[in-house]
Amino acid sequence: MKDLLADLAIQIQQVAAPTFEESARAKFVLEMFRQSGLSRLEIDSAGNALACLPGAGADSPIVVSAHLDTVFPAETDLAIRREAGRVYGPGIGDNSTGVAGLLGLAAMLKEHRVSLPGDLWLVANTCEEGLGDLRGMKAVCDRFGNTPRLYLVLEGMALGHVYHRGIGVRRYKITCRTRGGHSWTDYGEPSAIHELARLVTGISGLKPPEKPRTTFNVGRIAGGTSVNTLAAEAWLELDLRSESEPALNDLIRQVEALVENSSRPGVRFETQVIGQRPAGELNRNHPLVRLAQDCLTAQGIEPKLTLGSTDANIPLSRGYPAIVLGLTVGGGAHTLEEYIETAPLEQGAEQLFNFIRKAWSVKA
């Protein structure tokens, strides 16, 4: 199975899929679903590719998803390199391996002739990365609601971890506008870049709590016309995160107060929310969380309960059972030197197969 998963991951990785531009990969995966003998094939209005492995009974369905998109622009060289039990390539682990896991799971269930008590929906979804704002998963949860027994999210390089908590995230684009002018003749008039820099300094001086862990980051900043021009416009993109929704809301209030106090005659700030990932949690003692740990232990892997910002944020925030599991380990995520280890794919596949096979029998 590890060879099959590695080959599938490479095939998927070779189709570029920047966030908001996943259509080619979605069509490619849908055709792979078709060739796997799955039914109810569809690409929905959010661009998600869906397929179903029908159950023999009428129990609640399970939805297994993996995101299609990558952080890499369409022109990125996607060449693969194999070295000493590793496969290198942009996006190979995050998340081509996760998408390959959908197909590998279907193959294993068919090979072992497993009779499922309910439908198993496999979803290759869009818009998990960057400013995608989890739109693909929002559409999935809007469609299935609270009917699934579980939303299971696959992340290629998370083997050994059970994500059962979602970090809350708020993202802003903050724009400063001034009249601008000439750097010499209009010296002393406000520059949007200078004003924005003062705001960044103010944000840097905030002291978010260490517990619950709460963070901020100015990830992008741009503006201005030329070296000898007072900038009429400058903007930044800000990422705020916390394990706790109240702590996140407190940080949001502090940032918004800084922005409001930075405006003055001739200096105008505008704030736009460009991303919002609500927090949520499935109790660590939930039977499905315990089952996930047991399936890892059976593979000789010590499970680690953890949290993150993933597609699981959406169902968790709505009170639906959701966890994240991985298929292998790797490194260099979001870089051109991203890689996966191929040997652990065998354990990852067995863990996933056993989890799904047993999930319907768990009394949640």
How would you sum up this structure, described in words?
It is a single chain. The protein has 364 residues and is α+β, with helices and mostly antiparallel strands. It has two domains: 247 residues, 3-Layer(aba) Sandwich (Aminopeptidase); 110 residues, Alpha-Beta Plaits. It is 32% helix and 29% strand. It has nine helices and 19 strands. A six-stranded mixed β-sheet has the order 1-2-6-3-7-17. A hairpin with a 2-residue loop joins strand 4 and strand 5. Helix 1 crosses helix 3, helix 1 crosses helix 9 and helix 5 runs antiparallel to helix 6. The longest helix has 20 residues. The chain is elongated and about 80 Å long. It starts with a helix and ends in a 5-residue tail after the last helix.
Q: What is this structure, in a nutshell?
A:
The chain contains 9 helices and 19 strands. The protein is an alpha+beta fold.
Secondary-structure blueprint of this entry?
Layout: H1 2-13, H2 23-35, E1 39-43, E2 49-53, E3 59-67, E4 81-83, E5 86-88, H3 92-111, E6 118-125, H4 135-144, E7 150-155, E8 161-166, E9 168-177, E10 181-182, H5 192-204, E11 214-223, E12 229-230, E13 233-242, H6 245-262, E14 268-277, E15 280-281, H7 287-297, E16 304-308, H8 313-317, E17 322-326, E18 330-331, E19 339-341, H9 345-359
